[in-house]
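Entry type: protein chain
Record version: 2
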Amino acid sequence: MSKKTVSVIIVAWNAQAYVLECLDTLLTHAAGRPLEIIAVDNASSDGTPAVIEERFPTVRVIRNCKNLGFAKANNMGIRESTGDYVCLLNSDVKLMDDCFSPMIRFMESHPDVGILGPQMIDPTLQIARSTMRFPTLWNTLTRYTGVDLLFPKPRSSGTLLNSDFDHRETRDVEVLNGWFWMVRRSALHKVGLLDERFFMYGEDLDWCYRFQKAGQRVVFFAGAKAFHYGGASTASSPRFFAFQMERANLQLFGKHYGLLSRSAFWLICLLGNFMRAARYGTVWLFKPSARKNVLPKYQRRIACVWWLIRGGP
């Protein structure tokens, strides 16, 4: 077994139970491999840093005085890390086995791979989508309006959410969603850190885009898997994170496609949120049994519409 050191960076924000389970499974299944674990806490109010220090004394904890966002907190951990490979792990991920060893073997036998992501297993124990395509105005429009759902799979190769890919084979992809990344240190030196202008969301698309521009392959690896609960931190403030997602998309279009495309995306975003709000409102009116579940979704979409009309970021 290769003794390459892995530096694991975990960003935490008010998700103590998930973080503790993540660390427990990490130390259990990666036993015997040189590991450097850094937990960056974004000013959690649930006592997460103290509990980590008590239960996992080998884990280095960095405490932030406020929530600095996903990209900036991860960069803090990366700067302090020393491993041959840097693994960015969401706090609500748990390892099911030693997924690091096959991932490292793959990267060592493919030196042109800069960033690798494993299969995501969701709470239903199914393989979940964990890749997507770079956004364009067209695939964004079809996603926001739901038009992409009308096309059968053979014709869906241009969809934003990569709906033609069942995530059962190893292949190059445009975007690995930012739940579990293994990054080669030497590639990181070429590409640079995450763009801290993205508070949360969008940094994964931006980083994968930059990796490929630097000649580094971005690969989905079906030979390893990990479990992902999903939404552990965002569940505590869904409206705030809905705004952050729209903000990140606007930033991404502005950075890589220019002001005109950003303005066009703003219109698509406004239309999409309005259509979703109308759909949820209709369900609320005509299906009383669904009102409890659909009302928060309706409120988030209306809030996003109002936020965009007022100027967004």
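Comment: The first strand starts at residue 6 and ends at 12.
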